[in-house]
Design a protein that fits this description.
The complex is a heterodimer of chains A (about 80) and B (about 375). By secondary structure, chain A is of the alpha+beta class. Chain A is about 35% helix and about 20% strand. Chain A has 3 helices and 5 strands, in the order E-E-E-E-H-H-H-E. In chain A, strands 2-3-4 form a 3-stranded antiparallel β-sheet, with no helix packed on it. Chain A has a two-stranded antiparallel ribbon with strand order 1-5. The longest helix of chain A is centred in the last third of the chain and has 13 residues, at about 65-75. The radius of gyration of chain A is 12 Å and the shape is globular. Chain A starts with 9 loop residues before the first strand and ends with a strand. Chain B has about 375 residues and is of the alpha/beta class. In chain B, about 35% of the residues lie in helices and about 15% in strands. In chain B, strand 2, helix 2 (about 70-80) and strand 3 form a beta-alpha-beta unit. The longest helix of chain B has 16 residues, at about 195-210. The radius of gyration of chain B is 20 Å and the shape is globular. The chains are: A alpha+beta (about 80), B alpha/beta (about 375). Bound molecules: iron/sulfur cluster (2 copies). One iron/sulfur cluster binds next to loops of chain B.
Chain lengths: ~80, ~375
């Protein structure tokens, strides 16, 4: 699914954070690496994609918009993130 | 890899309002008096979470028949587990559901036999379709992640497209369509339930077509029938590798059918800690890894992929739990599977679902 700048991504139903940077989903567990966890923590349904990208670029040098988009699109295909 | 299981399967009870002919529960069901107490289950959840287990799947029987099910969901969730409830939906009132949600339930799986009352009742032995539909309606009103389970077999596989449309209409995020696995009660009814090759081929086409048109935001998982495969599935993700099941009486088992294996003894949560049973108990060691294998598995490059398939199937079909799963085409016991398929496929037409059937079905009984 295409994600626009104004989209407000959030975790899909049945997905929540577990201990040690894990994401618990109905079928199992995703281990989040590095910036992945940081992006997902910002997917609270109120921040827009634009805002998330802004925050990420501030915190992580070299982070580009397409990295965030690509990551969210992939998780959307797996049914983990919606907007 | 085997330092801890990923998930705990909590068979809270063998009691059930349904009597499904494909039930995978053992023929010898645990009675109410043998069931673990609330405190015993709470301790299991705490031990499981402390071991690093992430998911708890509440199943049975019908877990809602436990009077303490809300308390147990709450305890499991408080321990840090992700809680999934697998239910027939019978006994799921609005009040009960809202209590379960507040207790922290993460996900619910609701099973359906069919969209047609008569066809469903023929399989489950009771008329409960209206109750199930109502359960689906109630679930949809909550924020719970919702999966619809459909078990398919010879009597309904011809209507797979309609079954999928029905399941979609119930409003889940996910649909799981599973072919019957032949253990427990299902094995007793195999000659009535095993689909024909033509049915299986058509069902695969139906699913492939749907994959090409993912118009709806509903994911479909499909469990293919073992007997028509070339190689077995990695049963339970490998023996003692990913899953730990606790049965209603507290026995710790690597899979729900394992009790059919002769000379196997299960330790009980009443005497032993989960961590010890996972690491040390004879039952979990028995077929763990690849050491126990015979040829052709012993030297097969797929041994780390499917772990030789299902031990219970090997026992039930070949009479030897340490043989290769006989559905494997590399096994010298594969002819046993082929002869079953031959009989199934010699019956050209599968009987239409609404006509009286020729073979009597054996319904699951209920423990006292
Ligand atoms: S398969 Fe049917 S009889 Fe067996 S536990 Fe599930 S609902 Fe009950
Ligand atoms: S021979 Fe054994 S390990 Fe190899 S594919 Fe068959 S069952 Fe699996």
């Amino acid at each position: 699914m295409i994600i626009t700048d104004g989209a407000q991504p959030r975790l899909a139903r049945g997905c929540r954070f577990g201990a040690d940077d894990t994401l618990l989903v109905p079928e199992g567990v995703l281990r989040l690496k590095g910036t992945g966890a940081e992006i997902l923590k910002r997917c609270d349904g109120t921040r827009t994609l634009g805002e998330i990208v802004g925050e990420m670029r501030e915190q992580f040098v070299g982070m580009v918009e397409s990295d965030v988009e690509e990551f969210l699109r992939k998780l959307n295909e797996r049914g983990v993130v919606e907007w | 890899m085997t330092d801890k299981p990923l998930a705990l399967i909590a068979e809270l009870t063998h009691r059930c309002p349904l009597r499904c002919v494909y039930c995978s529960n053992p023929l010898e069901l645990a009675g109410r008096k043998q069931e673990l107490s609330t405190a015993e289950w709470v301790s299991i959840f705490e031990q499981a979470a402390a071991m690093g287990i992430m998911h708890a799947h509440f199943t049975g029987g019908e877990p809602l028949l436990r009077d303490d099910v809300v308390e147990l969901v709450s305890a499991a969730r408080k321990s840090g587990l992700y809680v999934n409830l697998i239910t027939s939906g019978v006994g799921l009132s609005e009040g009960k559901l809202s209590k379960l949600v507040h207790a922290g339930l993460d996900h619910i799986q609701l099973s359906f036999q069919d969209f047609d009352e008569e066809a469903a009742a023929e399989i489950s032995g009771v008329r409960v379709l209206a109750k199930k539909r109502e359960a689906a309606r109630l679930i949809r009103q909550t924020n719970l992640a919702f999966t619809v389970n459909l078990v398919v077999h010879r009597k309904n596989l011809d209507r797979l497209e309609e079954l999928i449309a029905f399941a979609e209409g119930l409003g889940p995020q996910r649909i799981e369509i599973a072919n019957v696995q032949y253990y427990g009660w299902a094995m007793e009814n195999r000659s009535s339930l095993l689909p024909t090759r033509e049915q299986v081929e058509r069902s695969v086409e139906v699913l492939n077509r749907r994959k090409l048109a993912p118009h709806k935001n509903i994911a479909i998982d499909f469990v293919t029938p073992d007997y028509y495969g070339k190689y077995p599935k990695p049963c339970m993700g490998g023996w003692g590798r990913r899953l730990m099941l606790i049965d209603p009486a507290g026995r710790a088992m690597p899979c729900h059918a394992a009790a059919v294996i002769p000379n196997i003894t299960f330790d009980n949560v009443r005497d032993k800690q989960l961590r010890w049973m996972w690491a040390e108990s004879a039952a979990f060691q028995m077929f763990r890894g690849t050491e126990w294998m015979q040829e052709p598995c012993k030297t097969c490059p797929k041994q780390e992929h499917d772990f030789g398939g299902c031990r219970c199937q090997a026992l039930l079909l070949a009479g030897d739990a340490s043989a290769a799963d006989p559905v494997c085409t590399l096994s010298n016991k594969r002819p046993l599977v082929d002869s079953v398929l031959q009989i199934t496929n010699a019956v050209k037409e599968s009987p239409p679902p609404h006509l009286p059937r020729t073979l009597p079905l054996i319904y699951r009984s209920n423990p006292s």
